[in-house]
Design brief:
The complex is a heterodimer of chains A (about 200) and B (about 850). Chain A is α+β, with helices and mostly antiparallel strands. Chain A has six helices and eight strands; from the N terminus they run H-H-E-E-E-H-H-E-E-H-E-E-H-E. Among the domains of chain B are: about 200 residues, 3-Layer(aba) Sandwich (Dimethylsulfoxide Reductase, domain 2), CATH 3.40.228; about 70 residues, no CATH class; about 80 residues, no CATH class; about 110 residues, no CATH class; about 70 residues, no CATH class. Chain B is α/β, with parallel strands linked by helices and about 850 residues long. The chains are: A alpha+beta (about 200), B alpha/beta (about 850). At the A-B interface, helix 1, helix 2, strand 1, strand 2 and helix 3 of A face helix 2, helix 3, helix 14, helix 17 and strand 7 of B. The structure holds iron/sulfur cluster (SF4). Iron/sulfur cluster sits at the interface of chains A and B.
Chain lengths: ~200, ~850
């Protein structure tokens, strides 16, 4: 799957040159024709499952096709969606390669402190180690009270029930349901460094 | 403005194009770069990055002094009834004209504002309300302010319209030319087109993206757009509004159901050690007090129901619904300070899920070095991201600056399921929740994100089960049961995925006694009898087994039966304003919501006769107003929420029911947008003596060095941006062969003028340098970028997409190694859209 450096350069200079040539090119889309055509894109046969594009916030509808063995074989735009009417942009159209990709890691990897390589581990081992570290870190660094400025130059003791030793940073292509569960658990543990791509 | 819609939100751009081809809409693009968006628009006006408030302020000035705006009764009716233009402001308020670029209330150290002088003039407080609403609501009733004073003629010098007139008087076409670098004619064309296309028969829309948000004045730029749209009568009406084009599949969902430090789900503030939040009562009174006369008057119901969802049966009135066991924030814990604190060794354990700060974070080098200070880190993703591999092959390792043996961080990589491999919902940029179904099991040990968090929670709960420590009350009593029904997992190999339906149902809310979903947030209670994770989503699961996010019946317009738009399937917020002060549509072309005086309201008067009159929407659009409040109805003074609001108070989430042209509260950097230069700027501020936002978030620390104003070492402006073919830090695109081949390598857009000055060759290498870092890229010499003449001085800009890193199939230097951590004071977003740099021909380290 790797692309050689040589091929990169070849493609790059093509793109750069093309960029200049296309500099004043006008995007001239016949939207009606595109929409009509989109409905006719051949979708590989199989069971069709409605989905949503995993990339941007436009929220284009997708149809995921699975074959008889239950394997995902195609991902196309959903012609029913009032948002995209069957169309997808280059990212949406490439979604199948995100799912079926030889470079995807399907096992747990572990890097011990100071080590220079990954090791394979079982999911169960990793989950119990992570839970253990989470508890240990939290318990050793939990603040019931903290002195806060009182606005008059002094301090006032406030109950804060938090820990500054744990932090969480999430992406914004992860389900609403995950966001809910994650904020709930993090708040239950006292985590305040809780952030998401949505900030930026 | 602030968006390259054609390339960054390509499919959405079909709709403006369709409006142009089918309906003759005029499309205008005001943006520093000429992009495919500009190519498809009728007008492209290039302005210098970071000068947007001057441009928008000048449109406001143009509009409110125009004949059309002063003579067409439409504007007056809209503005007097639906905005705070007529409201009187505290006579102590002083603006930028009087204080040379700052507002009254600036602290002596110049680092923060006190906003007391920005407040409204008010009538005396009302007599005590009658009570009996609930334990917290009754307390809110006791502290209601008097109604704001107004001057409906809008002549009083303290009224908002007059303040705005004075504030923007200096924002002239000549100033636009001086600061933005476009011609007065180009500016007038845009201003006049906006004005002429707004009114009774027509509406105009403003669309933006992170080109507006990623600034030290980001919030104020968007405020300026909202003010303009309110002045033009373009809010709450079809085809109008200010549309944010957000970047990720459910970035709206992760804002709504916030995994953000400052917010609880559904826009309740996080309990805060710096505020009077010492008990649930204090929390509610502090947060809801100032807004209790808006729909936020229901805050007690939202807050109590949140705590009931959090702690279930353990949350009781006696223990303040578990409030004492909930964490409080004590400062800014957002992304940038989080990474700085990590670098300082304060943070020990880190969960990074679907994020890649080693590439995507500002001053990314500093962020990578912070990762090396952790005790442990969990990364969940599809591929070995740069964040996962920072200890192995990051630039710092390759240069020998860091050695794996010295990095003590214990790293876990857990493989994640793809969207097609799990069930759940996304909220798109239009607030539309859409369900994606599960098509197949994820491979191997890959699991959904929800699986990870759910099972981590289960394990932790088991570990804490026997703890008698009161500090562990929260985790022990967390309501944490999302076991799937047998039929949900029957088709799948993985049997222990949590039930997405049960999670969504809890987000929606339910009655505690029988577990039945709530059909509407109007049914929430403040006595602990309802539980609700995020009140704005109520209605997505209106009854057991029904998921409105999975509705898939489109139609030709609003498609109310496609997914679910929060709140309550209202696609256009504040849509009461789509009708005039009598409740009639402004025009046939723009009708959406209207008052039908003859319709049966569904209620009866004391004599048992049906009460006539209600709001209707023939399109099926949800009505963003009290359904039976007649346009002429006057709100009660001693009342909360809808009862306080009058029939013309369309802006139901504002304490006065009006769109805020002047913001008496809610912003930390001033009640009106004023132009400040970016924190790093090649020029001095030509508008005021105050150079940059006085209260911007600044972190002067090792490794985060800033450039000076007009710094001779770094004279060139750089904007970072995205291309169509890649997604953010590239984790979801640089590994995909098609996308990697389409956009294989980092490039930098350079104008022919700058290229000639610096000897840069098209497709040759350039090195870009800041005080934070140095990267190399291929040069794309193009007339899409042009230098600006700013008050007689030539200012060069370059453009830099930022998707690349050292992993994946398409590799390149990390553009964010150049940027600094500096942020907007309201929301702590970074200033990625404009900072300064230098550029030279040739590769890093002097190679050519
Ligand atoms: S197909 Fe393109 S425009 Fe549509 S949601 Fe996906 S990334 Fe966005």
């Amino acid at each position: 799957m790797g692309i050689s450096r040589r091929k990169f350069l070849k493609v790059t200079s093509g793109i750069v040159g093309g960029g200049v040539a296309a500099e004043l090119g006008i995007l001239n889309v016949d939207t009606a024709a595109a929409a009509a055509k989109a409905g006719k894109v051949p979708i590989k046969s199989g069971r069709q499952i409605p989905s949503i594009c995993p990339y941007c916030a436009v929220g284009c509808g997708q149809i995921v096709t699975v074959d008889d063995a239950g394997v995902i074989v195609d991902i196309q735009g959903n012609p029913d969606s009032p948002i995209n009417q069957g169309t997808l942009c280059p990212k949406g159209a490439a979604t199948l390669q995100l799912v079926k990709n030889e470079q995807r890691w399907n096992t747990v990897k572990y890097r011990a402190p100071g080590s220079d390589r990954w090791e394979e581990k079982s999911l169960d081992w990793a989950m119990s180690r992570i839970a253990e570290l989470t508890k240990k870190t939290r318990d050793a660094n939990f603040n019931e009270f903290q002195d806060m400025p009182d606005g008059k130059g002094g301090t006032i003791r406030k109950r804060v029930m938090n820990t500054y030793a744990l932090a969480s940073l999430g992406g914004a292509t992860m389900d609403n349901e995950w966001n809910y569960l994650h904020q709930k658990l993090m708040h239950a543990l006292g985590v305040v460094y809780l952030e998401n791509q949505a900030r930026i | 403005m602030g968006s390259n819609m054609a390339e960054c939100h390509p499919v959405a751009f079909r709709w403006p194009l369709k409006a142009k081809t089918d309906h003759g809409a005029v499309l205008m693009h005001v943006d520093p770069r000429f992009t495919r968006t500009s190519a498809a628009c009728d007008v492209h006006v290039p302005i210098r990055a970071g000068s947007d408030i001057v441009f928008l302020g000048a449109i406001i000035n143009h509009v409110i002094n125009s004949r059309r705006w002063n003579e067409d009764p439409f504007y007056r009716e809209y503005v007097v009834n639906y905005t705070n233009a007529a409201t009187l402001v505290n006579p102590d308020f002083k603006g930028t004209e009087e204080l040379d670029g700052v507002f009254s209330g600036l602290a002596p150290d110049g680092k923060s504002y006190a906003n007391a002088s920005w407040s409204y003039q008010r009538n005396p407080a009302p007599g005590k309300g009658k009570g009996g609403l609930g334990p917290f609501s009754d307390l809110l009733l006791q502290q209601l302010p008097g109604r704001p004073k107004t001057d409906p003629t809008m002549q009083d010098p303290h009224c908002v319209l007059q303040i705005i007139k004075r504030h923007y008087a200096r924002y002239t076409p000549a100033l636009v030319e001086k600061v933005c670098g476009c011609s007065p004619e180009q500016f007038i064309k845009v201003a006049q087109t906006m004005l002429e296309n707004s009114g009774r028969e027509k509406t105009a829309n403003i669309t933006y993206a992170v080109g507006w948000t990623q600034h030290t004045v980001g919030v104020q730029i968007i405020r300026a757009a909202a003010m303009l749209q309110a002045l033009l009568g373009n809010i709450g009406r079809p085809g109008g509004g200010v549309l944010a084009l957000r970047g990720h599949a459910t970035i709206q969902g992760s804002t709504d159901i916030a995994t953000l430090y400052h917010s609880l789900p559904a826009y309740l503030n996080m309990p805060d050690g710096r505020k009077k939040h010492d008990s649930l009562k204090d929390f509610i009174l502090t947060e809801a007090g100032p807004v209790a006369t808006s729909y936020w008057g229901n805050y007690p119901k939202f807050a109590v129901s949140y705590f009931k969802a959090q702690f279930g049966a353990a949350a009781t009135a006696e223990n303040d619904y578990g409030y004492d066991y909930h964490p409080k924030i004590t400062g800014d814990h957002s992304h940038m300070p989080m990474m700085l604190d990590m670098g300082a060794g304060k943070i020990k354990g880190f969960f990074v899920m679907g994020q890649n700060p080693a590439v995507g974070g500002q001053n990314a080098r500093l962020q990578r070095k912070a990762l090396a200070k952790l005790d442990w880190m969990v990364v969940r993703d599809y591929f070995e991201t740069e964040t996962a591999s920072f200890w192995r092959n990051s630039p710092e390792i390759l240069s020998g600056e860091l050695k794996p043996a010295d990095i003590k961080t214990e790293v876990f990589f857990l493989p994640a399921a793809a969207v097609a491999e799990m069930e759940g919902s996304f909220t798109n940029t239009q607030r539309l929740l859409q369900q994606h179904d599960k098509a197949a099991d994820p491979p191997g040990d890959a699991r959904s994100d929800s699986w990870f968090t759910y099972h981590l929670g289960k394990r932790l709960q088991a570990m804490y089960r026997d703890s008698g420590n009161p500090l562990d009350w929260g985790i022990r009593n967390l309501a944490w049961d999302y076991e799937p029904e047998a039929k949900e997992v029957a088709p799948w190999r993985i049997k222990d995925e949590p039930s997405a339906y049960r999670v969504l149902k809890e987000i929606n809310g339910y009655t505690v006694a029988d577990g039945k979903p709530l059909a509407t947030f109007a049914n929430l209670k403040e006595d602990g009898t309802t539980a609700c994770g995020a009140w704005i989503y109520t209605g997505v699961v209106p009854e057991e087994g029904k998921n409105n996010a999975a509705r898939r019946k489109p139609d030709e317009w609003i498609s109310p039966n496609w997914g679910f738009a929060w709140p309550a399937n209202r696609h256009i917020m504040y849509n009461r304003a789509s009708a005039d002060s009598q409740g009639r549509p402004w025009s046939e072309a723009k009708k959406l919501v209207m008052w039908d005086p003859d319709a049966d309201s569904g209620t009866k008067d004391p004599a048992g006769n049906p009460v006539r009159g209600k709001w209707i929407a023939p399109s099926g659009e949800g009505i963003d107003f009290q359904p039976t409040k007649a346009p002429a109805m006057v709100g009660k003074d001693a009342a909360l929420g809808f009862d306080w609001l009058s029939g013309n108070d369309a802006f139901i989430m504002r304490a006065d029911g009006k769109a805020w042209l002047f913001a008496p509260a809610g912003l930390v950097d001033g009640p009106l947008p004023a132009h400040y230069e970016p924190y790093e700027s090649p020029v001095a501020n030509r508008v005021y003596r105050q150079q940059s936002n006085p209260v911007a978030k600044v972190w002067r620390t090792e490794g985060n060095v800033y450039h000076g104003v007009a710094d001779p070492k770094y004279p060139i402006v750089v904007s970072t941006y995205r291309v169509t073919e890649h997604h953010l830090s590239g984790t979801m695109s640089r590994w995909l062969p098609w996308l990697a081949e389409l956009m294989p390598e980092l490039f930098c857009e350079v104008s022919p003028e700058l290229a000639a000055e610096k000897g840069i060759r098209n497709a040759g290498y350039v090195t870009i340098v800041t005080a934070r870092g140095e990267i190399e890229a291929r040069a794309l010499v193009t007339r899409r970028i042009k230098p600006f003449v700013i008050d007689g001085k030539k200012v060069h800009e370059i453009g830099l997409p930022w998707h690349w890193g050292w992993q994946g199939n398409a590799k390149g230097d990390v553009a964010n190694d150049l940027s600094a951590m500096v942020g907007d004071p309201n929301v702590s977003i970074h200033e990625g859209k404009v900072f300064t740099c230098d550029i030279r021909a040739g590769r890093k380290g002097g190679r050519s």
